[in-house]
Design goal:
Number of strands: 36
Largest sheet: 10 strands, antiparallel
Strand content: 35-45%
Number of helices: 4
Oligomer: single chain
Length: 467
Amino acid sequence: MRHLPSLFTLTALALLGTAGAQTPALTGTTWTLTQLSDGGRLVMPGRNAQRPTLRLDARTASGNTGCNVYRAGYAARGDILRFMTLAATRRACPDRMDGLEARFVNLMGQVNRYRLSGNTLTLFAGSRDRLVFTSGGAAASLPSRPPARPETNVNLDGTWTLTGGTALRPVPGSVPALTFAGGRVSGTGGCNRLMGTVQAGGDTLTFGALATTRMACAPAVNAQEGTFLAFLARPALRASVQGQVLTLTGANGQTLVFRRAGASQGGGGTQAAGPVQDGTYTLATVNGQPAPQTPRPVTLSLTGNRIGGNDGCNSFGGEYRLEGTRLLLTGPLASTLMACPDQTQEVDIHRVLGAGPALTVTPSGLTLTAGGTTLAFSRQAAPAQGRVQTWTVAAQRVPCMGVGPMSCLRIQRDGGPWELFYGEIEGFTFQPGVTQVIRVREEDRPGPVPADASSKRYVLVEVVERR
């Protein structure tokens, strides 16, 4: 996955006195980038690229790089303006940004003065480079954002699986899918995950910048994903829904055809008995018999197009889609590698999930059936407390000092700065040389808590990615 570093290493600039009084037009206004010059060469943001923004409030600058959100201190006096270190999130950014984000961040670190003229703000970086922003009505007229249109009457919320079209023939076993929820879209190109924004107006859809992961895929799947993402990048795709079929049509007449997940493929098909609810499910029975005893409960978690859980010892995670009554994995399941005691082999949830099981929603939970095995799960009540975070765990431990010399994990919490982690993550196995992206639930430790212990405990929810 291509990530923006969580902390841009820019030259720290000393404050040039206290911030001077700024005109209202400069502070408290959201400025949108219209162009920049880098190395003396003029660069215009692509027509469909999300444009970087800047907002100055008191002594804090914030905005969007076109993909990631940033924040920094700044100092101003007269026409002098300098930014301190920029801290930013670490979302994966789409290739079609054409290096705009890196150029923007680099130039922001070199800004030394500004000029304000009406709705135009110009930041000068060095002797010949600059960033030009507009605000208010001028920003609204930029060609990169299509004009607002009345909302479409078609409800696209849910998951749609690609079935065909003239623009692309899906690779068997690696089929693209899109999940719409309000103005957000997520899904897969057949191997890599994607996420971003989408704007619906009239009978058209316009996708914003789509962030994707960067997993290694088979050549045919790579080619498929490139074609799929290029098609979605086209402005104002015409959307037509007939029954459970969605057709997207480009200006050149090419199409992509999707079927709503859970819809039958023909008159003889059936659907899962009711909608599948996101949440966590615990294995109750195997082929009608009580679930065997395992070191940890066998669980299944569904969130959007993400699937995860615990096989009785190790946690696992990946992506899935629904096709009729079948639950299909859209990629391999990542799993922890804890040493597990001997346990009953009746529960082979990985084999069942890999076989594309039939899914049935029941009043108490759901069942999965494949290869003569039926696993019945009961729905867990939502936990009373504890929040789930996404952590990146670095590939190497580093020396640190606790009660005595020790080695610590280096982690990033939800895209924040790197920090040392002195505790342990229950259910997680560190692998030297492997960077892992995991989801961790932070809980209050039940009392009484020893004086030298943390009041928090951290429990692995799922492994999202290894690289």
